[in-house]
Each structure stands twice: as C-alpha cells, then as structure tokens.
Design a protein that fits this description.
two-stranded antiparallel ribbon, Rossmann fold, homodimer, alpha/beta, about 200 residues
C-alpha cells in the first residue's frame, strides 16, 4: 500500500504529520512531495559541493513555522504507483495546492484509476476544483462550507463516500488518519493502532 | 511567553508537532532545538558556498521518518530566557535526550528557576533522571510505568503537579498541548483554541 502526500508552503503541521505518522505506523508506505524540484540549489548555481544532500528537495515551511524535508518532488510521482493521495490543509498551503495544475492532474488521474482520494480542513476545496467530489458526499472546514453544495455536504468529523475521504480540521486529524488506515489497511488494524497510542475519541 | 523544545533523532512526530503547533497558535514563542551544532556542514569541510542556509542547524529525523529543521542548537539556549521546557517522546529520541548532559542540565536549571517543565510519552523518564519529579506527581507511557514510584504515578492522560506537566502517548498529545496553553497562557485561551480546531476530547 502506497500513499502520496503533496505539500505546499503553509501546510497545517498537525494535519500533515498525523496523516504520515499514523499511516507509517500501519506499515503503509508514504511519500511526501513538495511542489519544488530536486537539485534546486545546484540549478540556481549555488555551487554546493558534491555530498549526500546533493539531490534533496528543498524544505517546506508549515503555517506555524515548522520546516520539514519532503521525500520527493511531485514531478517524480506516477499515479499508477500509488493507492491513495491525501491532502493536508493549512493556509495558504491548500490554496497553493489548488492552484497547481500538477496537483489537480494527480487528483483526477488517481480518481480515474479508482484510487483513494482524501483531504482535510480547507483541502477538500481542492478536490472540488479537480472535479472529483461530483456525485459524492464530503465534509470540509466550517470556513469552506460554501465550496460544497447542500447535496454534497455532510456535517460529520470524517466522511467516507466510496473512495473519497474528507475531514474538517486539525482537531479531527487523528480520526481522519485512523479512518485512512481503516479504509486502506483494515478496521482491525485501525482499532489496534488507536488503542496502542491511547486515542480516546470515537473513530 | 517562551518555550524551548529539545529534539533528538527518533522523536515522536505527532507529539513534537502538536506541542509546537498548538503553542504557536496561542502566540507562545517556541524555539525547537537539536543536539547538533550550527554550521555543521562547514565545520565538516563540505565546502558549501555562502548562501542563506549557511548557518542552519542540521535536520533531525523522527521515529516515523519525517525530517524537520530545528530553529537552533541546544548549545545556544539560556534557561533564563525561557518560561518552559517541553520534551516530546518517541524512541530512541527520549533515550538520547536522557543521555545528554546538556538536556539534564537544562531541565535542572529550568526547574531551579521555578519554570515549567513538561514531557510526554517516554520522556517523563528523562525528568526522573534529572531529579525534577521528586516530591511531585506525574504520568508516563505504560511501557515506562516502572520509572515512576507508586507515590509519584498518576494514571491520568495529563497530570499537572505544580509546574510539572506530563502525559502518556501520541494519542494524548492534543490534550497535553492544550493543557500547556492552559498553564502557560490561560484556561480561556485553551478552551477557545480547542473549539477553533474542533477538538472533541475532554481537556
């Protein structure tokens, strides 16, 4: 099982990290991707000497100033190689994701291939923009309520509609991540994991 | 209000990020510190050209492979400048923190100055090692139960004992981080924040 998590500057750190940490605990392979490119420093002529960091992608800063090093660039991702794509929220991260043609293409291709597509907080609006919510149900951060029609919107903390999985905010990130394990791995694994890390919320 | 969060390789990502994200949302200044030093690449003679990254500290990898860029090195921290020190758990991160004399000294000095001292998951064992739990009550991850005496141990998700604040696991990180806001800022700010991000657990 392989999952790709695209990142943009201003991603929400709790949402991003909870998704990646919980999926990896369930032995799902997760590849985090930036919108940048490898070897950026070298391309920019900064003259770094050859060393182990040579082909790293640049860091990405979250909306609360935490900088992380993604695993790869989105340009290296082949949708065929993945079982799911999951978007974290955070401002302006989700807006940037929604304005990037590569992200919209990835979502459409994953959806077209029958893969899981998921998003939390403001990021379900990116799924709307990609056209993958049509005919399905979803939830979103209260501030983005207007991006979903009354037929689409469900006022739950996590909504599963076929292979579309959505959630609301940083405070629902744990339930969202555990639900991803439930859908991608098994209900049993999800329950066991929740118990192991002492999650008390209903999942 | 200023908080220092020391990090070692193998820190628990959800715990670390939830602490930092929630405190920064409450407008607390948080400085994340590695055990490494600035200019490591330059010191190692890797010949990086002068650029904006020149004086950065090295990245630190969490126990689930997420790499983050800390704000500073622990060598730069003056306990007088901070109101609290908070340790994330994660294996082997908390063991490394407990084996580092600078971390033990920081905890003792902060405690001696009457500042807040806090830890989650396995990391309360580091507080025990520093001698700052004596005469107080605390909690810890079930696997570390033996590190606390029966007089010290409290079986709650978050335990506040004077200025000592402890918690159990990744699944209690949100309650722990919100409680830090309650103690360092105000109960009102804590409640408002929990509501804003849609936290449903009891805090």
């Amino acid at each position: 099982m392989r999952v790709v998590v695209p990142l943009a500057e201003g991603f929400e750190e709790i949402e991003f990290v909870t998704i990646v940490d919980i999926l990896r605990r369930a032995e799902v392979e997760v590849v985090t991707t930036s919108l940048g490119e490898r070897n950026r420093d070298r391309e920019l002529g900064k003259g770094r000497a050859a060393d182990e960091d040579e082909d790293e992608v640049g860091t990405v800063r979250g909306s609360h100033g935490i900088r992380i090093v993604p695993d790869a660039s989105i340009d290296e991702i082949d949708p065929q190689d993945f079982d799911a794509v999951v978007l974290p929220g955070g401002y302006p991260g989700f807006v940037t994701l929604g304005n990037d043609q590569r992200v919209l293409d990835l979502l459409r291709r994953m959806d077209g291939l029958g893969k899981h597509v998921a998003a939390i907080c403001g990021a379900p609006s990116v799924l709307v923009k990609a056209g993958v919510v049509e005919g399905r149900r979803a939830t979103i951060h209260p501030a983005g309520r207007g991006d979903l029609t009354d037929d689409q919107y469900v006022d739950d903390r996590v909504v599963v509609s076929g292979k579309l999985i959505t959630s609301k905010a940083a405070g629902t990130a744990m339930e969202f991540a555990l639900r991803l394990v439930g859908e991608l791995v098994s209900e049993e694994r999800m329950r066991r994991l929740a118990e192991e890390i002492l999650v008390e919320c209903e999942v």
